[in-house]
Amino acid sequence: MAEDKQTKNQADVSLVRRALESSDEFASIIEKYREPLTRYVRRLAGPNRDELDMLIQDIFIKVYENLNDFDQKLPFSSWIYRIAHNEAMDFHRKRRRHGGSLYEPRGDGDTTILAETLVADGDIIADIDREYAKRRVIKVLDCLDPKYKSVLVLKFLEDKDYDEISDILKKPPGTVATLIHRAKREFRKLMANGGADKINL
Amino acid sequence: MKIMTLEKRILDKIKQRGLRPTPRGYFYVRDAAIWIFLGVFALALSLGFAMTIFVIRGIDFNLFEKLGLSGGEKVMYSIPFFWIAASVAVAIAAFINFRNTRRGYRMSAKQFVFIAVLITLSAGSIFYAFDIAKYIDDAASENLPIYNLIVPFNTNTWLDPSHGLLSGAVRDRESESDFNLRDANGVLWHVTGKNIKSEEGLQWSSGERIKIIGIQTAPDEFRAMEILPWEKRPIRE
């Protein structure tokens, strides 16, 4: 597993070197990461189609401009996710400042997967009807503080381990573990209180 | 109409705007600056600790008694609030700065505090042992008027002969009870006394800095009742 990650990172390092030599080679990085980053940004900030397109372009341009800042001792994947995360959070803050909604609740495929993952976690909502719970989970997730939502998305949907989440969010691994624990607790509290219904999304 | 791929649109933007990756040197300089700041913060923190020891060890209960301070006032004047507050502010700045290093975020706040305390205690003790704290106190007392307002009972407190407090370096010593003393303002005092009280083992030979409690008897004459070491700390052999 660790070896697999190392091999993947070596491949990424090689892509970075080539992109630094020629901007055309940067296309390989875009090709490799466009889908995961698009998915992540959509899950995190919920932009509409046009906003998402602009956001992804801005992210890759920022990645290109900062290629020399990539520390080869860290996974490239974490580094590029970090940039995407920061841009998505900036977007989210700007939209909130301008009176936009926190998130456009859609219950799309991605969110449904997360909902199913969390519903399947017996520790969280053992006694709730699954289908009903799933709908509520989607709403509750949309109500969560972005810092909680981001760790849940990274852990359960992006399948990142604690070290990777630590590198992406620039927080100590212990803090990441605490955040995940709190996110689950917050989630459970909102579920139990019917918070999502009250919020009326 | 042919739809442009995301890759093409991004590469076109990069070319149209003439964008280039920021040079590696910029990031080297940025990282170096962060570490230099961190070094400065560590130095400041260690000096803050050295000053805290200096002030605490310099607490002069004889002076407190002479000034008739209450218990609460004694506690107030014994705690070096200025240096503690300055050290805390520097520690917070150092922590924020450290978090901006490449891998600083991986260290928890507890680990950071542990390492910062370790560095501060060891470097601060060395600074104190080499009298750097005393030098800073002297320099600040003489050159920073605000220091004398903020830090009570500093060197300047002992330049108040009309209230019976005098300090300076011994000159032209005839005997223990008859010598000259030059204070920090350059005034040469003739000091005399009978049965002068002092700590056991305290010597005041020429060149030695001392503090005196007594009475001013003339513009440049002082009768000593008690002589104290410059600092309230064990006298070195």
Please provide a written account of the structure:
The complex is a heterodimer of chains A (about 200) and B (about 240). Chain A has about 200 residues and is mainly α. In chain A, helix 4 crosses helix 9 and helix 8 crosses helix 10. About 5% of the residues of chain A have low confidence. Chain B has about 240 residues and is α/β, with parallel strands linked by helices. In chain B, strand 2 and strand 3 form a beta hairpin. The radius of gyration of chain B is 28 Å and the shape is elongated.
Order of strands, widest sheet of chain B: 1-2-3-6-5
Chains forming the largest contact: A-B, 27 and 23 residues
Separation, N- and C-terminal Cα atoms of chain B: 94 Å
Shape of chain A: globular
Basic shape of chain B: elongated
What Rg of chain A is obtained from the alpha carbons, in whole angstroms? Answer: 18 Å
Structural class label of chain B = alpha/beta
- Major sheet of chain B: 5 strands, mixed, barrel
Count of strand segments of chain B: 6
- Counting DSSP E segments of at least 2 residues, the number of strands of chain A comes to 0
The radius of gyration over CA of chain B amounts to 28 Å
Task: Tell me the strand percentage band of chain B.
Answer: 15-25%
Number of domains of chain B: 2
- What is the share of helical residues of chain A? over 70%
Give the N-to-C terminal Cα separation of chain A: 41 Å
State the order of secondary-structure elements of chain B, H for helix, E for strand: HHHHHHHHEEEEEE
Classify the helix fraction of chain B into a percent range: 40-55%
The number of helical segments of chain B is: 8
Order of helices and strands of chain A: HHHHHHHHHHH
Flag low-confidence runs of chain A: 101-107
